Amino acid sequence: MTSSLPIRCFCGQLEGAAHDVAPEAGTHLKCYCDDCQAFQKLLGHAERVLDEHGGTEIFQMSAGKIEITKGNEHLACLRLTPKGPLRWYASCCNAPLGNTLATPALPFFGVIGTCFDRSGGGEAVDRALGPLKPGVFGRFALGDRAAVDAHDRVPLSAIGGFLGKVIGWRFGGAHKHSPFFEDGRPVATPRVVSEDGAPPSR
Questions:
Q1: Which of 18, 20, 77, 85 gives a 20 to 30 Å CA spacing to 193?
Q2: Model confidence pLDDT, tens digit, residues 106-126
């Protein structure tokens, strides 16, 4: 059984939904990489988004199943380096939304867990996303790394399984329906942080 989960930024000016969410429809994990940590620090929401070990909860799913229903004008993205992934956020409140590649050709979207409304306890969200799989890039975890259920890197088995899903989404036409791209280009011009070093402004 799949679910449509509301997604929103922190201030509510950007809203949408993640459709057809189910444990088998994506990958639910935590990423402890230094880039994910840097992204949250740049946005000013590290304490709100990162866990005590620096992990970011992510649900990797088809970008074609993401719908933005309100506040498209607030969609913004940055790249930490010129060749890094596009990291999307809401410019109204700098709430992180997720990440994509710089092209819609491989149409996945890594939804950041704080986009989902768990104000009522979060049971419905947790059921839809399924249990967390072992995390990735645990070598960047903060504090006691022995307390973190994460691989040091991304295991080859996880890469193979994820690529299989992405290829399926591609052949299913998800690349034509991503709200983050239009005519093959990002709907917002990516700002490269390594070239200016400035945090996003609101």
A1: 18
A2: 999 999 999 998 887 889 999
